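Write out this protein's structure.
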Amino acid sequence: MTDNDGSITPDVPGAAEDRTEALEPDSPSRQEPGLSWRWGQWSTSRRRLSIAAVLVVAVLGVSATALFIARRPAPALWSPVPVPVSGADKAAAASRCQASTNRLLAAQRSMAAIPGSGTWVVPADVVDPVVVAERRGPTTSVLLSGAGTRSVCVGSDGIGMNPTPVQALGPGVGLSMHDEGTSSTTTAGQVRIVRTLDGQVASAVSAVRIHTDDGRSLQASVGGAFFLAWWPSSSRAVSVTAYGADGTVLGSCKPTDPSSSPGYECQTP
């Protein structure tokens, strides 16, 4: 066989067949010049696309998780419907309330002992049992009563309020009330202004409903011939209504003058 340059290339058996096989595109190694490089480039690109797809899925997964966490509702700090507290939690709340109230009374006695401080009437230390215990959100409140007095504490910090005298309800009277006014309490690390309302109810009263001048409607806790409620604002109650088990109105209280300091008038139907 003579080449173009005049040299002679010997015929090798099977060489033609080898040249034919080299041109058959049966596999990537048998492609036309440059095709093997493109196959490798395609393989590398495929690996890059696979890695990119994994990264996209991972990012989407993290985004979906973050979105789920962001949309998860935060725990409520207050509820218009209370949950009863009992057992060890009730006993612990009563103990905190007694201790904080008695510290308040001790401070008043110290003030009364200062010459020229005037006349102070300081009640005896509170040892009264708890008659109402409720929870709204994470906040527990209790009402202690006994020996003719009552004391109220709202909040996990156990800040007590000054004990006040309790008078028995008159014949046929279904409801009396006491507006504790506003105070501050710490809940979940936040200091908030709250308003507390409590009072006495007849034995036939099973529910007390309160409406405030900022539009709230809430249910009070009832127990031991008392009711107790609080809400996270300084707004006053515009109506307090006591109901029997059959829904009959047994008593109601309204402000004597909504623009003045707390003062209410209660009536029995």
